Amino acid sequence: MPTLSKKQGRGLERLCTLLPSPLTPLHGRRGAPLALPDNIICFCRRNSSDLNRPERGRALHNRYVLILALETTVSVCIDDRAIRLQPNEGVLVLPFQFHDYTEAAKENLKWLFVTFELFEAGSLEALKYRPFKLTHEVYHAATDLVDAYLGKLDSDLVSLLLGVLLSRIRQADPIKRRQKVVSGSPRLIMQVDRLAQGTTTAPSIKWLASELGISSSHLRARFRASCGVSIGKHLRSLRLEKACGLLRMSQNRVTEIAETCGFTSIYSFSRAFHSTYGVSPLQYRREDRKPYTKK
């Protein structure tokens, strides 16, 4: 193992002199219950035209999307808000938030993306619609994370380092910049999501339209104009994304997950799941839970 340099050693020795020397070192700092991110993916976008791929229209999924803009200014549209993200700034997109990208300052860019899941995520709600500066602490925490990710180190270490990065981001001062309202009907999308997620059965478009006080045809037209996909496809995506999260994060049986996500039978659930993801729900769960192997 490499040894510490004299400079590094002197730094530790200096810090040690600042520590107290208690007679009974039994009571220390207590940490809060720790919930670590899981199923982490790090990647980089280098062209603004790639930001909205592979989806067409506004993306929606059950994962967190952490965005760190290193080069080039682009607007990140999250639900009904457009946040102009400049170099050395970042933002966190929460699960089931619509998002896409517009008004890139130029084609070439360098944006770091970290997508992940978090079972208990109350602490991240404060970051909703809150862009932040890449402070010295945030930048170095992100550097450590990507270095560990590229080095294919123990996945537990990658989770810990992402946890540190999120902690640094929560401590960073928010950017107080006016956010524009996205054109179209994004508030309608959020209303539909709230209604759809509030029921265990698959809501009909007729029922949703009735709850919103508009006609079914008007709802279909406004929804497609707002997010670029049909409302039927969107509702199915919501249920399947919820199922993906439950397959990864819970021990529930596949039949229970199908029912929880509003499918009338395990057969209709399996067909819809295989059509979207190319594998059965059980195969998806088994693949996700394979042990990490160092390549």
Summarize the topology.
Layout: H1 6-16, E1 38-47, E2 64-71, E3 74-78, E4 81-85, E5 89-93, E6 99-102, E7 108-117, E8 132-133, H2 136-150, H3 155-171, E9 180-181, H4 186-197, H5 205-212, H6 216-227, H7 231-249, H8 254-260, H9 266-277, H10 281-288
Antiparallel strand pairs: 1-7, 2-5, 2-7, 3-4, 3-6, 4-9, 5-8
Helix pairs in contact: 2-3, 5-6
β content, as a range? 15-25%
List the helices and strands in order.
Answer: HEEEEEEEEHHEHHHHHHH
Largest sheet: 5 strands, antiparallel
Rounded mean pLDDT is: 82
- Total tally of structural domains: 2
Number of strands: 9
- Any low-confidence stretches, pLDDT <50, length ≥5? none
Put the structure in a nutshell:
With 295 residues, this protein is α+β, with helices and mostly antiparallel strands.
